[in-house]
Design a protein that fits this description.
Layout: E1 4-7, H1 13-23, H2 30-37, E2 42-49, E3 52-62, E4 65-73, H3 82-96, E5 101-107, H4 111-119, E6 123-128, E7 140-146
Parallel strand pairs: 4-5
Antiparallel strand pairs: 1-2, 2-3, 3-4, 5-7, 6-7
Length: 156
């Protein structure tokens, strides 16, 4: 699937918050997303398909480190390439904006997301026990990837 990937705009905030609430039990409000996006070095990307927001990514760059803050794809649109498109454009922009490495946190139990990030060459750099909720199901893996991003399937 090819969606139009574009920069997030202030008028997208309500839709992004609604999508985040569908995807995560602890979700961010439109106000919180707006405050985050207003911080220096932060950018958002939207996957717009057939006039609706089907997914989005939010990332930031501080010095030469980039971080994926969140990636959300509506459950009805998963496994159709939107997450892959969002990750590819997020890392491309992070690299273009001076990022030398990228980090993210992913739930250890989220195998689909882990598979996606592994395909982009992200590797485990750490573990946050009980980050999302108490117990092993709530552990977060800290993943790291040098930038610029090598083509999919190649690791750097």
């Amino acid at each position: 699937m090819t969606a139009m990937i574009r920069m997030a705009q202030p008028e997208d905030l309500a839709a992004l918050a609604a999508l985040h609430s569908v995807c995560f039990s602890e979700h961010w409000s439109a106000l919180g997303l707006g405050e985050l996006m207003a911080l220096p070095g932060t950018f958002g990307l939207v996957a717009d398909e057939a006039g609706g927001i089907r997914g989005f990514a939010l990332a930031r760059i501080a010095a030469d480190e980039a971080e994926v803050l969140t990636l959300a794809v509506h459950p009805a649109w998963r496994r159709q390439g939107l997450g892959r498109e969002l990750v590819a454009e997020t890392v491309r922009l992070a690299s273009a904006r001076g990022g030398h490495e990228m980090f993210l946190e992913v739930a250890a139990a989220n195998f689909a997301a882990r598979e996606l990030y592994t395909a982009f060459g992200f590797r485990q750099a750490g573990l946050r026990k009980g980050y999302y909720e108490p117990g092993p199901k709530g552990d977060a893996l800290i993943l790291r990837r040098p930038l610029p991003l090598a083509p999919i399937g190649e690791t750097g």
